[in-house]
Amino acid sequence: MVDRISLLPDAIICHILSFLHTKDAVSTSVLSKKWYPLWRFVPNVDLSDESVPDTDEKAYILFREFVLSVLLLRGTSQQIKRFTLKHHHYDNPNLNKWVSVVLQRGVEHLQLEMCTDCYYHKLPTGIFSCRTLVVLNLDAFYVNVNDVSSVELPLLKILHLGKFKFTEYRFLIELISGCPNLEDFVAIDVQCEKYGSKGKLKSITKLKRATILDCDFEFPLEALYNVEYLNLNIREVSPHYNDMPAFYNLTEMKLFFYEYRWQQLVELLNHCPKLQILKIHMSFGMEHDENWACPRFVPECVLLHLRECSIYEYGGMEGELQFARYILQNTRVLQTMKVHSFMSSSSDKKFQLLQELSLCPRGSATSKLVFI
Amino acid sequence: MAEKASESSNSISLNTVDGKIFKVSPTIANQMQTIQSLIKAYDSSRVISLPHVNAFHLSKIIEYLEGKSATTVSAVKEFEAQFMKDLSLKQLKGLLIAVGYLKVNELLELMPKTVAKLIENKSVEFLRKFFGIVNDFTPSEEAKIREEIAWAFDGVDED
């Protein structure tokens, strides 16, 4: 038998191993003497305690020992480029230690996903001053602003915060100020305990994409003024527009629409003069249908740039129909209007909705109506 | 004559281990890092020998390098998926060695990913068979390593 693949340079074997979970990569050390050391040179570490039962304390201890040995068996000069941890157990006495090892190994991509329902883990220290980080993804963490001495993330381009809680608003200000090269920012279910001393959030000049959903405080949208893509819940939009600048670079927006804030929607569109793609999710099952009062003006984007509009969870209520009509009627360059009806609508109902929409006058002769 | 010289100076002859000669454009040949320095010194009277690459593997590599220059990103993806799908396991392993030898960077990105998918969560026995690896550990050495990394063997497929 020929060890055919062993003719391959170690670099290629390591490259193959880098696409595996660390657990699988480590298990290849038993294959042969040639393979034995190779997993240690794989630059990414990807771990999960998913297979460890909640109730099996012994297995959980073994898992934690395994992680520590994975981190420590590598040479200190071996870079850990990417570290991914998916963690389901509540209490992890080793998390700080693991993260501190990873932070010392020049980590560029750090992803800590704590898959625990109503529980926030205390964020390990040092992450916000790790100058090598390019991508940071944190899920289910709690940060006391007093524990963060400074934020210095000069290379950070992508920051995702999911289910994240911090003590004071000034943390957000410090965080954003410490990431001068941020291009992609996601904040979903982010909570701020004390709004208190507000301060001003610096604009994120290089930001291209932003997602702000389900945050329990009014997010200062003016900091995002440069984005090209915005994913937003209309609740995040302050009804006071004085502060809000125009998004001159914004070409695509995904919007979750609630409580029929039509006025706010038109006002928002008016602040997006170059918008080309609008995806709007209607709220499900709202009974009160605030009347859509057709605005006297047509926002610049609707008139001149909007080429694709999608409406999701369309129930055909008066306001929704009027809005769809308003778009169809006033856009000059619209190519497609996609309307996704409620999943539960009957086929008769769907036919009726389609008929209503089809009869709307069109501003763009070439626009297509797609009803799903 | 002059015309012929310019035509042949445009293409580069590669001789595989099983004696088949391929004529490829410099753009294609240049993507095989191992022979890049030879191409610089190349003249049309010469043939570059590839002692570790057979005709089938070289033809696949050329097919890939020509095919992936499709116009759109999705067309390239589709082409790559089909390219990998068409290879049998044996061909895949052989090609990976040829690609590693010639250092065709794009295939060196694509192929390991495919191999990784095939070996995900497989037993040691499966992996040894898959890669044709000779176990040079004594039973006691192997047992010791298995013990060191016992956690890694939890929940492995038994085929």
Automatic annotation (TrEMBL), chain A:
InterPro entries xref list: F-box-like_dom_sf, F-box_AtFBL13-like, F-box_dom, FBD, FBL13/AtMIF1-like, LRR_dom_sf, LRR_FXL15/At3g58940/PEG3-like
Query: What species was this sequence derived from?
Result: Lupinus albus
Q: Which SMART domains match?
A: FBD, FBOX
FBD domain: residues covered: 300-372
Q: What is this protein called?
A: Putative F-box domain, FBD domain, leucine-rich repeat domain, L domain-containing protein
Q: Which Pfam families does the entry mention?
A: F-box, FBD, LRR_At5g56370
Ranges where the F-box domain occurs: 8-47
TrEMBL record, chain B:
> What keywords were assigned to this record?
Kinase, Transferase, Ubl conjugation pathway
Q: Which SUPFAM superfamilies match?
A: POZ domain, Skp1 dimerisation domain-like
SKP1 component dimerisation domain mapped to chain residues: 106-152
Q: Which residues form the SKP1 component POZ domain?
A: 10-66
Keyword Cell inner membrane found: no
Signal peptide feature range: none
Q: Would the keyword Transport be found if you checked this record's keyword annotation?
A: no
What biological-process terms (Gene Ontology) are attached?
jasmonic acid mediated signaling pathway; protein ubiquitination; ubiquitin-dependent protein catabolic process
Which Pfam families is this protein grouped with?
Skp1, Skp1_POZ
Q: Which domain of life is it from?
A: Eukaryota
Which one of the record's GO molecular function terms can you name? Answer: kinase activity
Q: Which InterPro entries match?
A: SKP1, SKP1-like, SKP1-like_dim_sf, SKP1/BTB/POZ_sf, Skp1_comp_dimer, Skp1_comp_POZ
Pathway terms, separated by semicolons: Protein modification; protein ubiquitination
Task: Describe the task this protein carries out.
Answer: Involved in ubiquitination and subsequent proteasomal degradation of target proteins. Together with CUL1, RBX1 and a F-box protein, it forms a SCF E3 ubiquitin ligase complex. The functional specificity of this complex depends on the type of F-box protein. In the SCF complex, it serves as an adapter that links the F-box protein to CUL1.
Q: Give the record's subunit note.
A: Part of a SCF (SKP1-cullin-F-box) protein ligase complex.
Similarity comment: family membership: Belongs to the SKP1 family.
Q: What is this protein called?
A: SKP1-like protein
Q: Which organism is it from?
A: Lupinus albus (White lupine)
